[in-house]
Design brief:
InterPro entries: HTH_17 (IPR041657), SinI_DNA-bd (IPR010093), Tn1545/Tn916_Xis (IPR038148). It comes from Olleya marilimosa. This is Helix-turn-helix domain-containing protein. With 97 residues, the chain is mainly α. The chain is built from 5 helices and 2 strands. A two-stranded antiparallel sheet has the order 1-2. The chain is flat.
Length: 97
């Protein structure tokens, strides 16, 4: 019986994830699931204006899934190899007088 309950929980989780991927506008709870952050962390981030969000009427918070994806990918950290290539490229430039 536990196996079936666990399988049902997993199916519910997958359906929720699929639903979120199909939506353009997310509630704070959906955005929390999408980002893997707690709702309290998201509330703090919106309060500190660290993450793009909308508050129509000044109360309930909504977030655009596409903007969240851009926010995530805008925080890319370069690899050591990429830094090495940039340094090599910079050092290979002729000196300007």
């Amino acid at each position: 019986m536990d196996f079936i309950q666990n399988e049902i929980k997993e199916i519910k989780k997958l359906l929720l994830a699929l639903n979120i991927k199909q939506k353009d506008i997310l509630t704070i709870e959906e955005a929390s699931e999408f980002l893997g952050l707690s709702t309290s962390r998201l509330y703090k981030m919106t309060s500190n204006k660290e993450i793009p969000h909308y508050k129509p009427g000044g109360k309930k918070i909504y977030l655009k899934r596409l903007e969240l994806e851009h926010w995530i990918t805008g925080s890319r950290v370069s690899t050591d190899d990429e830094y090495t290539l940039k340094i090599d490229h910079y050092l290979s430039k002729p000196l300007e007088h």
